[in-house]
Specification:
- The protein is α+β, with helices and mostly antiparallel strands.
- The chain folds into 2 domains: 57 residues, no CATH class; 80 residues, Glutaredoxin (3-Layer(aba) Sandwich).
- It contains 6 helices and 5 strands; from the N terminus they run H-H-H-H-E-H-E-E-E-E-H.
- It has a 5-stranded mixed beta sheet.
- A hairpin with a 2-residue loop joins strand 4 and strand 5.
- The longest helix is centred in the middle third of the chain and has 19 residues.
- The chain is elongated and about 50 Å long.
- The N and C termini lie close together (11 Å).
- 27% of the residues are buried.
Length: 158
Amino acid sequence: MTSVYEPWEAARGAEIISEHCKVEGATLVILHALQEAFGYVPEEALPMIAAELNLSRAEVYGVFTFYHDFRSKPAGRHVLKLCRAEACQAAGGDALAARAEAKLGVSLGSTTPDERVTLEPIYCLGLCATAPSAMLDGRLIGRLNEARIDALISEAQR
């Protein structure tokens, strides 16, 4: 499978930062644009953003680490997001998350050694009425149970 992302280049990063530096909420807009281009936000980009927006590196790092959707490393070929909101936890989400971690051999926020699957937390997909929910490569999945989580993991490992 060929990557849909560009390889990181500082010049390209600077171009993206420059394109978005004048918009309202530029820090978030730039972080999203970098991740869209490269599949993650390279650490080297954070001081570049800070300099362009006249912010401290700490301010940019704070925004980057506050939001769970930003990655500091490229994701695996497939991204499995498990809802970790309170309603999903109360409906059995903790056990399903533990099951996924055990089956994949990684913790939430990590990528399998073969780089096939990144397992990430997400906080509310809006499907929590009866059972935990997830998202695989942008596809919403509700009513998770052990069989459905196992099927999602198998699909992601292909």
